[in-house]
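Q: Structure tokens for this one, please.
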Amino acid sequence: MKASEKILEQIRREQLRPKPRWHFVLKNALAWLAFAVAVILGGLAFSVILFAIQQTEFELLDHLNHSGIELFLGLLPLIWLVLLIAALLTSMLSVRHSKRGYKYGILQLTGYSTGLSILLGTLFFISGGAQKIESAFASTVSAYESIQEKKIQLWTLPEEGYLSGTIQELRGDTLRLTDFTGKEWEVIYRDANWPPAVLMEPGEQIKLMGEMQNE
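A: Here is the predicted structure, written as tokens:
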């Protein structure tokens, strides 16, 4: 029996039927929809990563015993890195399962997916959307620690000379400060250099670099 006859016999025996055209059209549409959603999610994740880079105060590296990568990763919640990687992989797999996905190599898929996510992420970041996305996520997911909260932790290291909080009272060359954990401090700011934008008055939130003499 010829190979073609064997195939026909198998089709008759198993009563195989060709899939309708709409099945392939729907599969192709879903593949491209998944690609679009993945690229958008990747763009959102990349925009938050850019926001984290912007918020990383690398000048602190001269005073803190941390590398730039450690400081950056300390500010960036890993969920955004995981989301970015997952989105890129999903977008690549989606295109591969589309009608003409076989035409694209791995490098092409990686380049297209990464490039589109970077482009969208940059646009989100420039428009100010990254901070809104991150803040909305932080307010929705209670277990999530926002970049701002991590910055506060970074600036609440009095033993290393970093303190931040709200001015409560000014007396001569000292001020009473309540840090973001609720603890009160008395700070001697004689001969301190203050940026012009900082208003030395009660209610002003400030960041300080100095030396802790006693608790």
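A few notes: The longest strand covers residues 162-171. The chain has a mean pLDDT of 80.
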